[in-house]
Amino acid sequence: MNTEAPRPGAIKTVTSAANPVVKEIRALTQRKHRAETGLFLAEGLKLVADALEADWPVRTVVVSSDFENQPMAAQVAATARARGALIVKANASVMSRLTRRENPQAVMGVFRQRFAGLDAVTARPGPVWVGLEDVRDPGNLGTIVRTVDAVAGAGIILIGETTDPFGLEAVRATMGSIFHVPMVKATREAFLAWRADYPGRVVGAPLAGAVDYRGDRAAGDAVDGDRAARAVRCADRRLRPTRQNPDGGPRRFAQPGGLDRCDALRARPRPAQALASRAGA
Question: What is the SS3 assignment for 160-211?
Fold first, then answer.
C-alpha cells in the first residue's frame, strides 16, 4: 500500500478566458461534461473549505488574484496544493467567465463526485435513508440535502430522472451539506429490484396519501411519491401536505419533505430504514 504523500500541485496564473484550464472548468457547468469526467464545481470559499475538511478528492482550486492573500483563502489553497491539486490564480475577468456570473465568488474548486451503490443502504437501527424520485428542481434537492444533514440522516437515494446533485445550483443550495450526506443513484428498475429483497419497511409519501404523516410512524422508513408509492409497493402511504404556489406553479416539495424526515427521526428506538419521496417540481 502506497502511503507516500502526494506531490504538491502546480501553481498557474491565468489571465485569459481562452486558457484550456478555464475552458475545462467552465465545461463543468454542463451536466453532460460532469457525467463524462466525474468532476463537479464548488463555488465559494466556504464550500471549498467544507469539501477539503471532509477529505473530498480535489483536482483544482481557483483563487482570485485580488483575494489570494486573504488568510482563509491562502490556507485553502495551501491545503489543496499539498494534496496535489492545481492552484489557479485568476483575474476578475476570468473569474466572472468561469461561472458566467457578474459577481463571481473569489474561490472555486473542482472535486471528484461520489456516489454509493444501493448495497450501502442497510436496514439497521439508526439514521434513515431518504429516497427521492424524479426531483427536478436543484434548489429543492439542496434543501432536502441540508435537512438530511441537519437530522443526521444516513443518506439520500436518487431514483429515476432526478436533477444532478453535483450541478452548480444544487451544490450551492446544499450550503456544504453535499459533502456530508452520502448519495446513491439508481434507475427506477434497479431500485425496484433492490426493494424486492430489502428487509426494511418502506413508507410512501405521495401528494395524496391515506394516512396523515403526523400519525404513528417507524423511525427511518423509505418513502416514495405518487408513482413510486404504487410501483415500489410501500408498506404504507402517508399524506404529505403541500401548498400550491401563489402563481399557480408546481407545489413546493422541500419544506413538507423536510417535515417528513424530522418526523421520521423522532422514534429512534425503532429500526431505521429508508424514506422516499417524489416531487415533479
Answer: CCCCCCCCHHHHHHHCCHHHCCCEEEECHHHHHHHHHHCCCCEEEECCCCCE
Report CA dihedral (29, 31, 37, 41) to the nearest 10 degrees.
30
Sign of torsion over alpha carbons 134, 137, 140, 145: positive
Asked if residue 127 lies in contact with residue 272, where contact means CB atoms within 8 angstroms, the answer is yes
pTM of the model: 0.77
200-259 pLDDT, tens digit each: 877 777 655 445 444 443 333 344 444 444 444 455 444 444 444 444 444 444 444 444
Q: Is the distance from CB of 221 to CB of 264 less than 8 angstroms?
A: yes
Instruction: Give residue for cell 465545461.
Output: 27
CB 202 within 8 A of CB 222: yes
How wide is the angle at C-alpha 149 spanned by C-alphas 48 and 75, nearest 5°?
20
Q: What is the DSSP string of 232-243?
A: TT-SEEEE----
Q: How far is CA 65 from CA 45, 50, 122, 136, in A?
A: 14, 21, 47, 36
At 162, phi and psi to the nearest 5? -95, 160
CA 223 to chain centre: 18
In 38-137, alpha helices (H) = 45-53, 71-82, 92-99
Of the CA atoms within 13 Å of residue 196, those in its CB half-sphere come to 5
- Which three-class secondary structure state does DSSP give residue 141? helix
DSSP secondary structure code for residue 124 in this structure: B
Query: Which residue's entry shows cell 467544507?
Result: 50
